[in-house]
Design a protein that fits this description.
single chain; 428 residues; alpha+beta; Cytochrome p450; five-stranded mixed β-sheet; three-stranded antiparallel β-sheet; 45% helix; globular; binds protoporphyrin IX containing FE
Length: 428
């Protein structure tokens, strides 16, 4: 471990002694993507398709030692094969660049996403009913109400920031409702996501703040759990936290497991869906024909949502190699990271006809924006509903729009990619 300890890191924080500050150092520009890639590279964040195309033709599984030994497959079939091979590729450290020198599952387990079977099997099963189609459909009116409120507050003259004033607020408010935590605290919840997942380990300046955010979440959810436990069964609010407290599981659920699942449910759906709604609206602002088509024929919307998810897939995950293994000629070593570039696989021409083109009514679209295999997104019904309702409500309530200032658009990337500033105005 490095000796560099910037003053921002509070050494009393229990996670501080596991931190690898060297991974947050500035590594400078990428020299050769095949042997030195970096998902935080600004051109990759703005438009990763260029790197994927280059890599597919030259080196379909790239490697780097910057930050951490990591492999980056970009072909659909390779990514799918790794996602299904849970024996050689563990989920104990699904963070793309982990700040810690031990797998996150050993330090701060966030089941089921950081678990392997057998824990994964029951940790996931107990959550499934809460995210099934009927539970999600019950949230669609709430979502529509939130969308209408945001439009009334921010887009009364047809202009505003579709990412910051709209997409950013919908997923956090929906999941706060479901967890039973106050929607009024949304800025604190979103702040935790930004401080851990987005900024967290992109630079030394942010590391201390990310550790603080983890502690704040721990304290916050410990208090919410204690409040519910102090209530009689039957008088507790009917929300996800109570569901977890009362769950009957194969193995006794530790408090650490319970808190980790609360964290995950809060953070897994926020910047992912915020990114997906934001990039969908960015697309419509920059592709007037597609916007017109959706306005004229709303029945295309379900297909458009799948194409938004394919073309602008926000999420890249990671696995760790459990033992030395050769995969497609690559000598992977125990402990190496393999990045699950689902977004890259979704642009693979071997899997999708005319893969680089956005086809609003693409009929065959077996994308894996939600992953593949046992960890496939548990919130996929919820995310799809939120994107559909958010886009539909926006098209109904906001007149035809375009970008007000293309140069002002900003994207964030790494584990989750999406636009963070999309200023729009009524179309000329
Ligand atoms: C467009 C939005 C979303 C995208 C693109 C997305 C993507 C993903 C992906 C790719 C995985 C697989 C992880 C892996 O293979 O390691 C995943 C897992 C997961 N997602 Fe999502 N997600 C989205 C929204 C949500 C929402 C709204 C929730 C709700 C809480 C959620 C909860 C989860 C959970 C709990 C897992 C872990 C499942 C498991 O390990 O069995 N996601 N998601």
């Amino acid at each position: 471990m490095t000796d560099i300890v910037p003053s921002q890191v509070d050494r009393a924080n229990p996670f501080a002694s596991f931190i690898r500050l060297d991974r947050a150092a500035d590594f400078g520009p990428v020299s050769d993507w095949a042997s030195d890639f970096d998902l935080a590279e600004p051109p990759y964040v703005t438009d990763p398709t260029v790197r994927w195309a280059e890599q597919r033709g030259r080196c379909p599984i790239a490697f780097t030692e910057r930050r951490q030994r990591s492999w980056l497959p970009v072909l659909y079939d390779d990514i799918a094969a790794i996602a299904h091979d849970i024996e050689h590729f563990s989920s104990h450290d699904p963070i793309v660049v982990s700040p810690f020198d031990v797998p996150i599952n050993d330090l701060l387990p966030v089941p089921p996403i950081s678990s392997d079977p057998p824990v994964h099997t029951w940790a996931r099963r107990l959550l499934l009913p809460a995210f099934g189609p009927s539970a999600v459909e019950a949230m669609s009116e709430v979502t529509r109400g939130l969308a209408e409120e945001l439009i009334a507050d921010h887009f009364s003259d047809g202009s505003g920031d579709a990412a910051a004033d709209y997409a950013r607020h919908i997923p956090v408010r929906v999941i706060a409702h479901m967890l039973g935590i106050p929607v009024e605290d949304e800025e604190m919840f979103t702040g935790w996501v930004v401080r851990t997942l987005q900024q967290g380990f992109q630079g030394l300046a942010f590391v201390g703040d990310a550790l603080d955010a983890i502690m704040e979440m721990t304290v916050y959810f410990s208090e919410r759990v204690a409040e519910r436990r102090a209530m009689e069964r039957g008088t507790r609010p009917r929300d996800l936290i109570t569901m977890l407290i009362e769950a009957e599981t194969d193995e006794p659920m530790s408090d650490q497991h319970l808190l980790g699942t609360c964290f995950l449910l809060l953070i897994a759906g926020i910047d992912t869906t915020w990114s997906a709604i934001g990039s969908s609206l960015w697309h419509l602002a920059t592709h007037p024909d597609d916007q017109r088509r959706l306005r004229q024929d709303p029945s295309v919307l379900p297909m458009a949502v799948e194409e938004f998810l394919r073309v602008y897939s926000p999420v890249t995950m990671a696995r760790i190699v459990t033992d030395d293994v050769e995969f497609k000629g690559c000598p992977m070593k125990k402990g190496d990271k393999v990045l699950m570039a689902f977004p890259a696989g979704n642009h693979d021409p071997a899997q999708f006809e005319d893969a680089e083109r956005f086809v609003i009514d693409r009929a065959r679209n077996r994308h894996f924006a939600f992953g593949s295999g046992i960890h496939r997104c548990l919130g996929s019904n919820l995310a799809r509903m939120e994107i559909r309702v958010a886009v539909q409500t926006f098209l109904e309530r906001v007149p035809p729009f375009e970008l007000a200032d293309p140069d002002a658009v900003t994207w964030t990337g790494g584990q989750v990619r999406g636009p963070r500033c999309v200023p729009i105005r009524p179309s000329a």
